[in-house]
Amino acid sequence: MKLIVGAHTDTGRVRDGNEDVKLVDPRMGLYAVADGMGGHQAGEVASATAIEALRAAVSNGAPIREAITKANEAVVERAAGDEGLRGMGTTMTAATLAAGGTLLIGHVGDSRAYLVRDGELSQVTKDHSLVGEMVQGGELTPEQAEVHPQRSVITRALGIERGVEVDIYPLELDEGDRVLLCSDGLTDMLRTDEIAAILQRESDPQKAANTLVDAANKAGGEDNITVVILDVVADDSSAGAAPAVAAGPVEAEEAPTPSPSRRERRRGLPTMRRVVRALVWVLPVLLVLALGFGAVGWYARRTYFVDIDHARVTVFKGVPGGLLGWDPTLEERTTIKVSDLTEAERTDIEGGKRFSSHEKADAFVDRLDQKIEDREAAAASTTTTTTTTVPPPPTPPA
Ligand code: MN
């Protein structure tokens, strides 16, 4: 069996920075979500430090518990060496695919792992949080925990002290299983049945990841949101997000590697002919894939879209949600606040309104700006009493 992966992380609609980190490394079979905490930029440092140390430890052959222990030490040391980072910490929910199709999930904190099997969503990890422990002790129902004011208080994290207790959940994977790793920015915004419905509806893991993040943002996006989805498929499966791309490079590595002339001398002509035949077949396929990939990249990088980000109308370069690894980049955050927009304008923009050039996106923003100014001017000049108080329009720089 193998895993097809979809992943997405987003700042959300309230926070200024993203303290979550996702890790997707199919070659190592390593997948993780870390949610950092700490003042100023410390949360971002904590989660990034932990993920980097985790990756280094696993690539050196460490099993998951040891790798998370190393990640803890790395954060503790980093915090000890810098006054501004004192007190930072991070959650860690990490999964490695072991031989025989066992997924080993290591867990500290309140980021979660879920399993979808036979259409049923179940939570694999137990939260190391105040309310999580109260639920486990029977003092709260899961429903009460979801709305508890102290639901974000965690009782275990990386970076707090040397030595950390890591929970390990071994999961015997079956074909058709779907595993979700996520930060609390998802689970605090969406009910379990809402998450289950999206995971059920979106069969493509990347689309499912994007849709979950979008839904959490629509529900408020009060925290950073991170989602990693692992779909378990048969090794020879042609199902999945990008089967052609997945099959291409494998063929390419296997067919041309041995030098044809050496093999010909050793094994005679039939092998040579096989290699040539393979090359004849593989090269055009590779060419088409390369052209296709290049075209997608070209398309993904030359288009623009306008979306709402950090409660501002924002211009991005790229395609909403990204395309085959080409993530959109922020081009310009305008001064137009989401609160300046009418319901219709907001609906029009939300999720990404696409334009074929930067100029067209700019022109759209200018028109929008003008409309808002006109509205504000009309509201200011009208003598009838209005209940809304409109601040004077900011004078745009020349
Ligand atoms: Mn969080």
Word description of this protein:
With 398 residues, this protein is of the alpha+beta class. It is 40% helix and 23% strand. It has twelve helices and 15 strands. α6 (192-201) packs antiparallel against α7 (205-218), α8 (243-254) packs antiparallel against α10 and α9 (260-267) runs antiparallel to α10 (269-302). The longest helix is centred in the last third of the chain and has 34 residues, at 269-302. Residues 239-268 have low confidence and may be disordered. The structure holds manganese (II) ion. Manganese (II) ion binds next to α5.
Broad structural category: alpha+beta
Individual helix count: 12
**Strand count, sense and closure of the main sheet?**
6 strands, antiparallel
Radius of gyration based on Cα positions: 25 Å
Low-confidence stretches: 239-268
Distance between the terminal alpha carbons, to the nearest Å?
60 Å
The total strand number stands at: 15
Hetero groups in this structure are: manganese (II) ion
Strand content: 15-25%
Please state the overall shape, judged from the principal axes of the Cα atoms: globular
Give helix % range. Answer: 40-55%
Fold blueprint:
Elements: E1 2-10, E2 20-25, E3 30-37, H1 42-59, H2 64-80, E4 89-90, E5 92-98, E6 102-108, E7 112-117, E8 120-123, H3 130-136, H4 142-146, E9 167-172, E10 178-182, H5 184-187, H6 192-201, H7 205-218, E11 225-233, H8 243-254, H9 260-267, H10 269-302, E12 304-309, E13 312-317, E14 329-337, H11 343-349, E15 353-355, H12 358-381
The protein binds manganese (II) ion.
Manganese (II) ion binds next to helix 5.
